[in-house]
Q: What sequence folds into this?
């Protein structure tokens, strides 16, 4: 393979430049089905990059079905390579979601599809299944198919846009984020999570509660931290002390990041039952954690307002307040 030029001054990661080059050469027919394009070592030498960079690029194209890696033999173009389909003029929007099994993402799909149909557009749907690399590969694939725009529910929950989203923005490719991003320079549609945390806490204060706890999954969850800012602001503006002991991390030692939220609620209910000093009310960052907490607490015999002042029944308001799990 002849030496291929990589632009080391481009902000685009080197492995993505290799992906772009190999995909173009496959789709234009320069590399044909079953052609051997070399080994990883040969590609590393041809592009002047490290083996790990080549490995990342090849892995992306293998997942897309364009390449096949055969141990000890090299890398081959797949027997049935993906063929570029020009969708321009057909009104197609690519929808990249993180987890179709999650109820929140299911609602996004329903709403997007309904509105797109009304406007004469069709939807191409993908599920990144919790993989950053798969997510980026799906976005690249949709672009190569010629979609008119992208709706992205990214895995990344960061204050600033990732390099990948920044590149989309620089290219002026039509996109909108429906996952949280605190950066006014990028296109985002979503909720004001700090205001939501403020409103939930203020509601509890207006009901007369002065000792209010906040249950969250730890600092690994950006949205939980943003909602906590609203919780703390409501306490401050109502001259109530912020007791750090009433900020509860539901993610105990037995659960790591990404743990099932229902299990977190069950575990927290058990810890809550053993507490000697409990707050009068609780604000949960997530509805699934709150539901599991309520059910488990009831099973543990904590039923009355005296035992569990965060729950009331009948005509009295329920004061276990939650916000939607807007992890997009």
A:
């Amino acid at each position: 393979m002849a030496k291929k030029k990589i632009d080391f001054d481009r902000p685009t990661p080197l492995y993505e430049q290799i992906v772009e080059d190999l995909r173009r050469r496959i789709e234009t027919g320069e590399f044909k089905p079953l052609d051997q394009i070399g080994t990883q070592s040969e590609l590393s030498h041809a592009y002047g990059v490290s083996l790990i960079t080549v490995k990342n690029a090849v892995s992306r194209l293998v997942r897309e079905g364009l390449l096949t890696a055969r141990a000890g033999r090299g890398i081959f173009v797949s027997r049935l390579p993906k063929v570029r389909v020009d969708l321009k003029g057909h009104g197609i929007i690519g929808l990249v979601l993180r987890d179709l099994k999650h109820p929140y993402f299911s609602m996004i799909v329903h709403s997007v599809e309904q509105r797109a149909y009304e406007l004469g557009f069709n939807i191409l749907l993908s599920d990144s299944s919790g993989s950053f690399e798969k997510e980026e590969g799906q976005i690249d694939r949709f672009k190569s198919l010629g979609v008119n725009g992208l709706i992205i529910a990214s895995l990344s929950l960061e204050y600033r846009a990732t390099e990948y989203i920044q590149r989309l923005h620089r290219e002026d490719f039509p996109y909108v984020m429906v996952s949280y991003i605190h950066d006014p320079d990028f296109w985002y549609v979503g909720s004001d999570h700090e205001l939501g945390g403020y409103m939930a806490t203020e509601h509890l204060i207006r009901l007369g509660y002065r000792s209010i706890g906040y249950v969250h999954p730890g600092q690994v969850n950006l949205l939980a931290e943003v909602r906590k800012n609203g919780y703390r602001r409501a306490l401050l503006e109502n001259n109530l002390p912020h007791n750090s002991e009433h900020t509860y991390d539901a993610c105990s030692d037995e659960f790591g990041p990404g743990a099932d939220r229902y299990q977190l609620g069950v575990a927290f209910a058990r810890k809550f039952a053993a507490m000697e000093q409990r707050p009068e009310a609780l604000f949960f960052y997530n509805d699934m954690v709150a539901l599991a907490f309520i059910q488990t607490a009831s099973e543990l015999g904590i039923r009355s307002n005296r035992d569990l002042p965060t729950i009331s029944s009948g005509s009295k308001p329920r004061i276990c307040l939650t916000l939607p799990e807007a992890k997009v």
Q: What stands out?
A: The mean pLDDT is 78. The first helix runs from residue 14 to 27. DSSP finds ten helices and eleven strands in the chain. The chain has three domains: 14-77, 92-177, 193-322.
